[in-house]
Amino acid sequence: MSEGNGKAIQKDLLSSLVVFLVALPLCMGIAIASGVHPAAGLITGIIGGIVVGSLSGSPLQVSGPAAGLAVIIWEIISKHGLPALGAIIVVAGITQIAFGALKLGRIFRAVSPAVVQGMLSGIGVLIFASQFHVMLDDKPLGSGIDNLMAIPKILADVITMNHDFNHLAALIGLITIAIVVLWDKLPFDKIRNAVPPTLLAVLATTVLAAVMGLDVKRVELPNNITDAIKWLDLSILPTMGWTILTQGMIVAFIASAETLLSANAIDRMAPENKAKYDKELVAQGVGNTLCGIVGALPLTGVIVRSSVNVKAGAKSRFSAIFHGVWLLLFVAAFPFALKMIPTAVLAALLVYTGWKLLDIKAIKAIGKQSRTELLILLATMVTIVCVDLLTGVLTGVVLSVAKLVYAMCRLHINKVVSDNQVILELRGAATFLNLPQLAEEIEKLPHDTDLHLDVSNLLYIDHACLELIKTQEKQFKNKSGDITIDWGPDQAKFKKSVSRMTEVEVGAETTSVAA
Fold it and tell me: Are 75 and 29 in contact (CB under 8 A)?
């Protein structure tokens, strides 16, 4: 092994330890938020590291259970029961393999930023609201809106000292969040970057709870991780086949979109990491198929652990693989240590994660760019919170398409009168839908007008409008008028369009092209 390769492996080992320390509490916390045993999240993390890391098309990306899917999994278990989950995840995995084989990876990136941020914000609100209750050693109430609406009452009860939840669990949760927030504000960069705040928070609050003997719920884990495996049950297929298929497609779509968005973000953080999106989808599909078979949670590429991996100095896929190995070794050797962690601590980490997903700065930035995009974002987020994730995402996509269609169908005509010349500047799209508008503007001008028609800023012009321009050009020339048409840099394209659609040559004899 060369000296350069040896240093790269050394950096991968060190970064994998950092990622492992971040992933360990998140794997368990996301499992609890999803309504399954914490061990299921750990198994997913192990498969995400060792299996997906080995096959990944994005070498520096780390895969594992994702907070974004916790909402979907909770809904699936609530409506269809835990036995259906494994089959749904297997369908999702096979679907992702098909997506990759059909080279559909880039399609998942063609989603409006407003829809993506709306989806993340909606998921953030749902996670925040549900885990707020878990942080109090209580259970979520059911729907996202119910969880959210109950929070003000709980806070009011705290103020009036009229609460019946576990105040010790709430205190541990608040301390956890405080440590994470304050640690990120430390001025000592080397110390701050060397120790993950989630690890520090979990260690500190777990020790505090143990030393003080606090009566709070703690993580439940089997002594042997293999005892947590729930093998795929195919007996439910005859009665739930259609449900499993449709839910599997939904999980596949959301997981693929989240994975490829993460991969794209990692490419920007580490330009040397060039993701192969279709290969990444196949790797994710293989991982999710295995997760479904053993009864674990679905996995995706996750931005938090992936960004930690890059910042820690990872050089290759070995870092992601090693982090899975550390998870396996720790769970196998020290399950008793994990059982000491208060559930409220893991819930608090997810409360903080949910708040971070509701990225106020990103929402404001989108609002400054476009009010319409902001409305799409808010509509997506509110629908996710009040209805469900799929309906919310579909709402955002439909609104984005409607906005695009509206923009494509609009024609702006700016009229400028200068001396004896009239300038009509066209912007947007000139189609048959706005042909009456264009015809009215031209036809109300005297035919002896010196008309300058600027079409250089059009996004699109169709056959009907080309025919109108050609007809008006002839009429003006026959009645002592003149039209100068500025086709702009796309002159050759427009000429070809006119020649093909109208079989009329648009050349120097009939058109003056502005310089």
Answer: no
Sequence-separated contacts (24+) of 148-156 with Cβ below 8 Å: 148/385
- The answer to whether residue 209 is domain-embedded is yes
- Is the separation of the CB atoms in 373 and 407 below 8 Å? no
Strands 450-461 and 300-301: unpaired
Three-state SS string over 270-284 comes to: CCCCCCCHHHHHHHH
Q: How confident is the model at residue 458 (pLDDT cuts 50, 70, 90)?
A: confident
Domain residue limits at 416: 410-502
How many folded domains does the chain comprise? 2
State the CB neighbour count (10 A cutoff) for residue 239: 10
- Radius of gyration of the chain from Cα atoms? 29
| Alpha helical stretches, state H, 387-426 | 389-409
Question: 206 and 338 share a domain?
Answer: yes
CATH number (domain holding residue 461): 3.30.750.24
Strand order through the sheet with 421-430: 411-418, 421-430, 450-461, 482-486
Distance CA 182, CA 186 (A): 7
Interior angle at CA 382, CA 376 and CA 386, nearest 5: 145
Query: What pLDDT sits at residue 508?
Result: 36
Q: Which CA distances in Å does 13 have to 6, 396, 441?
A: 11, 41, 70
Alpha-carbon dihedral 271, 276, 277, 280, rounded to 10 degrees:
-110
Q: Is residue 424 helix, strand or coil?
A: strand
- C-beta neighbour count of 199 within 10 angstroms: 15
The answer, yes or no, to whether residue 71 has pLDDT greater than 90, is no
Helix (H) or strand (E) segment spanning residue 417: strand 411-418
Examine the pLDDT at 68 and tell me if it is beyond 70.
yes
Do 327 and 415 lie in a common domain? Answer: no
Q: Is-contact 373 251, C-beta < 8 A?
A: no
CB atoms within 10 A of CB 21: 20
Q: Is 511 helix (H, G, I), strand (E, B) or coil?
A: coil
